[in-house]
């Protein structure tokens, strides 16, 4: 009886997908001109896209190995009754302190499509802490090919230096 009930719940609710991100600094040369410190996951940048299926729940365990707080936001995803999982640092949650961990529970529910996971703490998104987040349809319509193209802004300096530059009173930045 319990096995049948477990099977029915599995078919209706979806899978539990578990990922672990060790967020660290990485040395990169993404533009072919300047080596700089950026933020990666599991010592890699770019960060691999995350794929789940409609109805699945993503448990994303984040180990913050930076020297500053961080937080992860599922951009565009509706977090019904789960605002504390939204990852907006100092708005819906405190940042994850250095050398600490937090597990996000991201429920796709009936949503599907292309979203992205990114830091919502200071300028960490501009330092590379972002990746596509794809929620595949549970019962997809037919199509020939699915192509993912991720575009980004990239600066020669890290976000902390860029912020100082942009806020300087003598800057001629528009």
Q: Care to describe what's here?
A:
With 174 residues, the protein is mostly beta strands. It has 2 helices and 8 strands, in the order H-E-E-E-E-E-E-E-E-H. The chain has helices at residues 2-13, 159-167, and strands at residues 16-28, 36-41, 50-53, 57-64, 72-75, 100-107, 113-119, 130-136. The strands form 2 sheets. The protein has a 4-stranded mixed beta sheet with strand order 2-1-4-6, with no helix packed on it. Strands 3-8-7-5 form a 4-stranded mixed beta sheet, with no helix packed on it. The protein is globular. It starts with a helix and ends in a 7-residue tail after the last helix.
Q: Could you give the count of β-strands?
A: 8
Shape: globular
Content of β-strand:
25-35%
Which secondary-structure class do the elements indicate? Answer: mainly beta
Main sheet makeup: 4 strands, mixed
């Amino acid at each position: 009886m319990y096995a049948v009930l477990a099977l029915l719940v599995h078919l209706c609710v979806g899978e539990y997908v578990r990922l672990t991100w060790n967020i660290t600094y990485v040395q990169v040369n993404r533009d072919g001109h300047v080596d700089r410190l950026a933020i990666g996951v599991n010592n890699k940048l770019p960060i691999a896209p995350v794929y789940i299926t409609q109805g699945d729940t993503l448990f994303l365990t984040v180990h913050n190995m930076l020297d500053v707080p961080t937080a992860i936001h599922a951009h565009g995803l509706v977090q019904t009754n789960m605002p504390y999982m939204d990852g907006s640092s100092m708005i819906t949650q405190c940042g994850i302190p250095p050398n600490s961990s937090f597990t996000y529970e991201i429920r796709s529910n009936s949503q599907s499509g292309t979203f992205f996971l990114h830091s919502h703490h200071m300028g960490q998104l501009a330092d590379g802490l972002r990746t596509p987040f794809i929620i595949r349809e549970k019962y997809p319509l037919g199509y020939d090919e699915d192509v993912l193209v991720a575009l980004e802004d990239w600066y020669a300096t890290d976000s902390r230096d860029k912020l100082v530059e942009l806020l300087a009173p003598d800057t001629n930045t528009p």
